[in-house]
Automatic annotation (TrEMBL):
The keyword Hydrolase applies. Transmembrane segments: none annotated. Keywords: Aminopeptidase, Hydrolase, Protease, Serine protease. It comes from the Eukaryota. This is Prolyl endopeptidase. SUPFAM superfamilies: alpha/beta-Hydrolases, DPP6 N-terminal domain-like. It comes from Pseudolycoriella hygida. GO terms for biological process: proteolysis. Belongs to the peptidase S9A family. It is an enzyme of class 3 (hydrolase).
Length: 663
């Protein structure tokens, strides 16, 4: 399929570079939310360079103040309790993902830790307007593999064990904060759900392995007698069902032949699903409740971006909405339903508005075996786009691969796309097989295809770009994080002649060591992992994984490689990067290795993120010839070892880079 919009003229190659500090520094505001009574607005914003929770009255935005004071690591997530007094938030240590739960009370201005401080992972299971001063949380303090369920009183801070978990991967509670369902992994990688009735567990449903990712309980309605179920059994794409638990009657209320449906918004008090999202190459909406039809119509006409309903007050008179575009910062609005009027509040990145951002174009690429790969392409700054023609100038291409692999790329503002395109590169992201949302057949087409057909999809995308005269075959890079990092290592070891260089962030190098080092709380999902990656119980099975591990083929590497890793990563341990770097050193193959000593599976500190992208930018420029902003002071504050060296001078960095790319 031809690109939707193509380059006809290569124009101003000196378009202003968007500074890295604007792209990868802290946003102005993110995770914006309303209190349930609509009196307050909260968001994450920098306080002394670290993202903290800020609070302001909804009618006085100019007087916002921070209510948390994290000094080192940003707060990852938070939620309002229904008492409208407590804000619940989570925090970990150096990216280890052992999240602790805190509560901040806006009246007493006191902060309390609700869960153990060390060596325990916790998460919030449920909050409800029916019991506003209580929450349900899961903690793996007794058994690292499973999360016991506790009810916590937000006034007394008393914690009560309500469900002792001796083998279940998930627990699901209703609006009364009663545990009603539990789930466990089956031997063949499926998920079995049990209903808790009068203290006893009864089988409810089985989601076979092929449906395990796309079949699950969404939640209850207010009566607690009905559930919403996303279900791909007997279908390819997941449909939304409304199921009565008393009569066992179920009805399909939303479906799409192209993709799995997802929830757009639910009524804040009744918990009924009122609209769903249909996201193929872009998102459309399907309204299920006509009481919000005029609201959605008004809001979709207000802005051309994708509409997101972030918060609704309990009385449903006030909504907080956001619009996401591919070439503009996210815009936030307050919507008064009674007045049928929306008021602009702010954007998430004010400084980004002064730069001309670039359009992201959806494109469907055919795989060699006939799959439709929903992909997104961004052409570089200086390119004039016009419909109906092919590019007359080839730019260096960067294949940017998403992680997961059970995740997906979406249309919208992608900071990495904007960064690389600003430097003169065409950027292509591909939803390869195994990406979620496109139906279970597409997900399961990836089973036991790591380093094989999943990688073939990426190579097919490269071949498409070359055939379309978009890319010069000698100037194509591959980069990504997590699975995207693995794909990068596969690209440079198993298809060594395709890519000019690669950038791997926290990517596994050996599938055998990866599966043997997973966190204990991932063990319930091991059966699913064995079906997805491949089993490892026999010597023959181990050899199968060995043949799909980049570490096995290190000697094939002939192009420059940059590796980034967090020392506290619980998912892809530091050893995954250490071992391939060691093997390359032993084979006298140059490599650049950036180890961040206070990070995990990605970046929690903007100083580290800024330094990483500054180094990667220089790396790509030296090999592909794109533009690069000077490093300047972008390494200041980063806790970084570069090829085992600290306190890096410009001369040291230059020497490391020269040695790594001299081949």
């Amino acid at each position: 399929m031809s690109i939707l919009m193509s380059i006809t003229t290569f124009a101003n190659t000196k378009a202003p570079l968007i500074p890295r500090k604007i792209l990868f520094g802290n946003p102005d505001k993110v995770s914006v939310a309303l209190s349930h009574d609509g009196k307050y607005l909260s968001y994450l914003a920098p306080k002394e360079g670290v993202l903290n929770i800020w609070l302001t009255k909804i009618d006085d935005l100019s007087n916002a103040n921070p209510v948390t004071y994290e000094k080192v690591r940003r707060i990852n997530s938070y939620v309002w309790a229904f008492n409208n007094k407590d804000i619940l938030y989570t925090q970990d240590e150096k990216g280890d993902e052992n999240y602790r739960i805190y509560k901040y009370n806006i009246e007493t201005k006191e902060t309390h830790l609700l869960t153990p401080k060390e060596n325990v992972k916790a998460h919030i299971i449920g909050i409800s307007d029916l019991v506003p001063n209580e929450i349900l949380i899961g903690i793996n303090d007794r058994d690292k593999k499973y999360f016991d369920v506790y009810k916590v009183n937000l006034i007394t801070l008393k914690k009560e064990l309500v469900f002792k978990n001796d083998g279940f991967s998930a627990t699901i509670a209703d609006q009364n904060l009663q545990v009603r369902f539990v789930a466990s992994s089956t031997k063949d990688g499926g998920v079995e759900y049990y209903q808790l009735k009068e203290g006893k567990l009864e089988h409810f449903m089985l989601a076979p392995m092929e449906d395990g990712i796309s079949t699950y309980i969404v939640g209850f309605d207010k009566t607690a007698n009905n559930i919403y179920l996303l279900d791909s059994r007997n279908y390819n794409t997941a449909v939304l069902k409304f199921c009565n638990l008393l009569t066992n009657q179920e009805n399909i209320i939303a479906k799409s032949d192209l993709v799995d449906v997802s929830i757009m918004t639910r009524h804040p008090r009744d918990y009924t699903v009122q609209a769903v999202a249909i996201n193929y190459d872009k998102t459309t909406y399907q309204i299920l409740d006509n009481t919000i039809e005029e609201d959605i119509k008004y809001l979709t006409n207000l802005n051309t971006g994708s509409l997101h309903i972030l918060s609704r007050t309990l009385d449903d008179t006030l909504w907080l909405v956001a619009y996401e575009s591919d070439d503009a910062p996210i815009k936030y609005y307050k919507y008064d339903r009674s007045a049928h009027k929306a008021e602009f509040l702010f954007t998430n990145r004010t400084n980004l508005s002064q730069y001309k951002l670039l359009k992201m174009q959806p494109v469907i690429i055919k795989s060699r075996d006939g799959l439709d790969l929903v992909s997104y392409i961004t052409f570089p700054a200086g390119a004039i786009l016009d419909k109906g023609s092919k590019p007359n100038h080839k730019f260096p291409l960067i294949l940017y691969v998403h992680g997961g692999p059970n995740a997906r790329d979406n249309w919208g503002l992608n900071i990495v796309h904007q960064w690389l395109a600003s430097r003169g590169y065409t950027v292509l992201s591909v939803n390869y097989r195994g990406s979620t949302g496109f139906g279970k057949n597409f997900i399961n087409a990836a089973n036991m295809e790591w380093g094989r057909k999943m990688h073939d999809d990426l190579i097919d995308a490269v071949k498409w770009a070359i055939a379309e005269d978009i890319a010069d075959k000698d100037k194509i890079a591959i980069m990504g994080g997590s699975y995207g990092g693995y794909a990068t290592l596969v690209g440079l070891t198993m298809t060594p002649d395709v890519f000019a260089c690669g950038v791997d962030l926290v990517g596994p190098s050996n599938l055998l060591t990866l599966v043997k080092s997973i966190p204990p709380y991932w063990e319930p999902a091991l059966n699913r992992l064995k079906k997805a990656i491949g089993p490892w119980d026999t010597e023959e099975e181990k050899e199968f994984l060995k043949q799909r591990s980049p570490l096995t083929f290190v000697s094939n590497i002939k192009k420059p490689l940059f590796i980034g890793q967090g020392a506290h990563d619980p998912r892809v341990k530091q050893a995954e990067s250490d071992q391939i770097v060691k093997a390359m050193n032993q084979a006298k193959i140059p490599v650049i290795y950036a180890l961040y000593e206070d990070e995990g599976h990605g970046f929690g500190r903007p100083e580290n993120s800024l330094s990483y992208h500054a180094l990667v930018e220089q790396f790509l420029a030296k090999i592909l010839g794109g533009r690069a902003e000077e490093i300047g002071d972008d390494l200041q504050g980063a806790n970084l070892l570069l090829n085992n060296q600290k306190n890096l001078s410009p001369q040291t960095i230059k020497k490391i880079f020269e040695e790594a790319i001299k081949k």
